[in-house]
Amino acid sequence: MTQHADRARTRRSRIALCGGIYSNPYALRAFVADARRRGADRLICLGDFGAYGAEPEAVWPLLDEHGIECIAGNYEVAIGSRQADCLCGYTDDTDNAFGQIAYDYTFAHTSEAFAAWMATLPIERRFDVDGVAVHLVHGSPLQLNDFWWESLDDDAHRMRADASGADVVCCTHSGLPWTRRITRSDGGETLAVNVGVLGRPANDGERHVWYALLDLDDGAASAELVPLDYDWRAQAASIRAAGLPESFAEVIETGWWTSCLEILPPAERSRGRFQLYRSVLAQLSGVDPTPGDRPVVPLFGSELFPPRLWIYTNFDCNLACSYCSVASSPQAPRRRLGLGRFTALVDEALDAGVTEVYVTGGEPFLENDLVEMLLYAAERLEVVCLTNGMLYRGRRRAELERLAGHPGLTLQTSLDGSEGAHDAQRGRGTWARAMEGVDIARSLGLPVRVGMTETSGNAGQGDALRTILADHDVAPEQVAVRPLVARGNSAEGVLVAPENTVPELTVAADGWFWHPAGADRATSPDMLIGSPEVGLVEARRRVVERFLTMRQRDGSLPTIYQCAV
């Protein structure tokens, strides 16, 4: 790269740095005013004057009028040399399609004089302030259009710092602001500052944009990332008036990226509202998504990550099934959540867009506060409680009556085929007791579903079970047959793992898990997502990040193991 050096002789300097103006003169004016108010003595732009906005030519006079020093980004190199595309570095076809629309518009609305001026700009700059070596780049010291993401590993950060060797490196291009102190291979330290962009929000649901203040004082450097309010309504109106894609305006108005999304790494993308293009969701799930105006969709709430929360109230059980995927039994530690934790989870679920809660165990009816839990949840969300149906007697029978009449509540009872097959798995007399439980629930008007785990001992008995249950007021479509899972107590069955299975957010006393068929920390540590202290929103984000990471790694398609009927 060409290097440009100049020497500043002042001992103290405050520099305001912006990037990615994206044809947004409204934010650029606000940047100048805010930076001057905060005492900045130099204003610098790190490139990409044009892109998603509609007024590229309005940017140039502002840069000139306010003496903003500039280096070239990929847009300036592309337009200045009359390239056919923006050189953005996108690899996804849909990202490239949006990028091409933005570039073609900018190219067509940039004057020859402005383009010629762009061609004179350096692609990097170096200077010293009181012994602090500062390096300005657009993407990174490696490449003009390199995406220097905060989530890169330590080696990747160090490689970029080593390539610079400066005390401070400032960049933009990726659109997301961050700072980090990096120890270089030579033992020195580099302060890396991604200054963010002025042209659109940082995919955080906020309308403000970002720039950075760099303070150089007596041989030391520090940086502050500054949120910047501006006339976003005017920018959105300008984009619409120009006939640019609606998604460009929606980003401005909502703070969430709805285009050029696939370039985001899993960690950064998981923090946003949207994670997939509609076309990608259809490819991965085999199901066309619900029609909508936006080209993007969230992962959570789709076929690949249902808006469902599984809650393990406990792990002790009155039965000891040899195929239990979470190793429940009468001897298993209780590991109970408790009523307070349960209600807090329901509140979190409601706020997070969860539409249904599945309550399971162990045997949930061993939990003294279960009915209170179910009542609290059913008043707010659709609730299904998984049970072996054998404990509806005495106090529990009376408690069960309190649930009658709640339309949002369903009991899902486990019945494993014929009486002989069921009892062979669960113990003599358990089938009769479970059927009695079905009858008691139906007599109270409670909806009942049935789940059958298919093993070598009851294979092919699903239809016969449906016929039996029809006489007990359980419709055939309310009976589901699911395969045995090689988890917990079972060494045989379907291999369910994060690498091959659609996630279903699950919480237990031990923490958060990828899927309910493996929510036991002792026997399924690979399913663990986070500790009990982690909140629901963060647990969901971790699942999304892990999903995207695995998909990015090998492109494999997940399958659905349906515990829910």
From TrEMBL:
It comes from the Bacteria. CDD domains: MPP_superfamily (cd00838), Radical_SAM (cd01335). Pfam families: Metallophos_2, Radical_SAM. Keywords: Iron, Iron-sulfur, Metal-binding, S-adenosyl-L-methionine. Residues 303-526 form the Radical SAM core domain. InterPro entries: Aldolase_TIM, Calcineurin-like_PHP_lpxH, Metallo-depent_PP-like, Radical_SAM_PqqE_MftC-like, rSAM, rSAM_sf. Belongs to the metallophosphoesterase superfamily. YfcE family. This is Radical SAM protein.
